[in-house]
Amino acid sequence: MQSGYWILTHGIKGLGPAVANLLYFIHPTHVSPFNTAIVRGFNAVMHANMKLGRWDHYLAMRQRILEVNLEHRSLLSNDLGAIAGFLFDVGMDRYPLPPSTDDTAASEAWLKDLEAVRAQSTALARQLEANQQQDATHTEVQGWLRDLGHSLGYMVWIATNDRSRPYAGGKLVDGCISELPTSLSINGADTVPLIDVIWLHPDQTVVAAFEVEHTTSIYSGIVRLLDLALGSVTAAQRHLYLVAPDAREADVRSQLARPAFSRVAELGIKYLSYGALKEHRENIARFGAGMKPIEAIARLL
């Protein structure tokens, strides 16, 4: 913190928060971020009266933050990001502090608010975990299709927005083509590159396309498949699949019954369940050839 003491001794003003925040990114275990909300939170928690923009106040605040972070390291983190985030949330009135008096009514109200915050945090944590599981499952199924396509001798395309996802110790895009043929370009739309998995022949003609629909609406996936089948220069009927959990077949069928998807039946789009793909993918990879084994485990929608 020599820079802080140097600024303090030279009487330079207006650099407090800016310098502190820059130093935090360089030394996150020694320097705390510094802004209005953090100062407000610090004052509320520590019953202090620190001022923003004063280096003598910042240095005193930093020392106390270091002490508290060390004392409660198991609940916070090695760097000062967690405690700074806590102080910021308090300063933004996101977390109610316990009353400083012996007022029973105030204490009961605070406990009620605390329970509400805990319930909200638990719900958010569960939602985050569910989202992470959904992402992992979606990526896993894409990985199955990638590996199966390679085993059957096809080139494989992975959706542009999923290419960097981790899978099997590498990236989902490993071993896949980096560009789609220009024949799949569609005027006014950029949907085809977002199709989850596409298999292609060595001559770059499309063999099959797969949209993995784990929990979300199938509308966008159907639109992408329709664009591939009807909008590209080499428009032709291909093997098109909606890949979804076993329990979603009825939901997929009900959504496809909408008038907006009347062309789907003409294109022969099929439903491929996770269960069927998981059960048969290894045998198809070892003994299969062409699209016949995939067609055998898929169901017409």
Provide an overview of this structure.
There is one protein chain. This protein has about 300 residues and is α/β, with parallel strands linked by helices. It has two domains: about 1-90, no CATH class; about 135-300, no CATH class. The chain is about 50% helix and about 10% strand. The chain has eleven helices and eight strands. The protein has helices at about 1-10, 15-25, 35-45, 55-70, 80-90, 105-150, 220-230, 250-255, 265, 275-285, 290-295, and strands at about 155-160, 165, 170, 195-200, 205-210, 240-245, 270-275, 300. Strands 1-4-5-6-7-8 form a six-stranded mixed sheet, sandwiched between helices. A two-stranded antiparallel ribbon has the order 2-3. The model has no long low-confidence stretch (mean pLDDT about 80).
Key attributes of the depicted protein:
single chain; 301 residues; alpha/beta; 2 domains; 6-stranded mixed sheet; two-stranded antiparallel sheet; elongated
Residue share in helix: 40-55%
By helix and strand content, what is the structural category? alpha/beta
Bulk shape: elongated
Could you give the order of strands across the largest sheet? 1-4-5-6-7-8
Largest sheet: 6 strands, mixed
Low-confidence stretches: none
Quick synopsis:
The protein is 50% helix and 10% strand. It is α/β, with parallel strands linked by helices and 301 residues long.
